[in-house]
Structures are given as C-alpha cells and as structure tokens.
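Appendix B, Record 12. Input sequence as logged:
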Amino acid sequence: MKPRTACIKRATRETRIEITLTLDGRGRFDVDTGLPFLNHMLELFSRHALMDLRLRARGDLAVDYHHTVEDLGLCLGRALDKALGDRRGIQRYGCATIPMDDALSRVVVDLGGRPYLVYEVANKRRKIMAFDVSLIEEFLQAFCVQARMNLHVAQFYGREPHHAYESIFKALARALREAVARDARETGIPSSKGTL
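Logged structural output:
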C-alpha cells in the first residue's frame, strides 16, 4: 500500500515550520518547537498515535508564544489532511478516554471533513512554567480546522496541570490512531454522501 506521509513547510515573518508526518509509523519522533512543554506533548502524541513525526519550528518566541503554537496547529492539521488523501477506507471515527494519575480526559474525533472544536477543561491553572496552557485550545482549533476534523475534548478532572494536559494529548493520539486506521471492510469513502 502507498505510504500515508506528508511534508509541510510554512514560512512567515513570524514562524518557520517544517513537518513530516507518517500515519502508519511506529511512534518515532524528532520534535523541536523551541517550547519544551509543547515538545513533550507532541512527542507523547506521536508515540501514542503510532505516527512518525519530524518537526522543526522557529518562531518569534521573544514576542509571544501564540504565533508559534497556532502555526504548529495549522501545519500539523495540513499534514494530517494531506497524508489522509481522499480518506478512502479509513475508520473515520475515534474515541479514547485516558487517565494520567489524578487526571482523566476523553477525546472524540470524526475525520468527516467538517471542522469543529468543542473544548472543555477542568484544570484552571494558567501556566506550566512559562507556557500558557490556554494556548492548547488555540493549537487544537488550528489543528482541527486544517485537518478538516470534528474534535471534542473533555477533560473531566485533574489537579496537577501537567497530568491534566498530558491526558488530553494521549487521548487525542489514541482517538486519531483509531480514526485514521484502515478498515478492512470499508472499500470506499466512509460516508453516505460518497465524499468527505
């Protein structure tokens, strides 16, 4: 079968990003965003989605983290969309509920082509070291729009913020791993419309 891989490059006055994403990988990663916490979350995502991810990003971090985080979401979404092609033969839907010590999160995805984000988090801590965790919502919004995916994130509880957000990224990984998987019984486009 043809490998489902995509390479995306984006260069603006604010960021320079290069991503290579392989859907049917082994969870190998080589990630450098300039933001250690986000590196960690994307490494977890790659490992638990069993997608190979090589990512390099340079952004105007001295100004703000927002440009880099949002553009990373845009690029990762474009890479996922491109790697999926016409989405023929995929399972399309995925759901995972993942604990991380004191935290529990559920992520549900539909790769049906209609972008929409629902994002509910219980942990109200604003920062993990210098990283503003409210930017995770910006990342996921950009990701789901460019990936053309319906994404529901529900973090039920979690006192420790690192655990709370780690449970989200691991749940996202496992839900996408299920949704992008090839379905042996699905020979066409998984939609009654005939297109996604």
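The first helix runs from residue 36 to 49.
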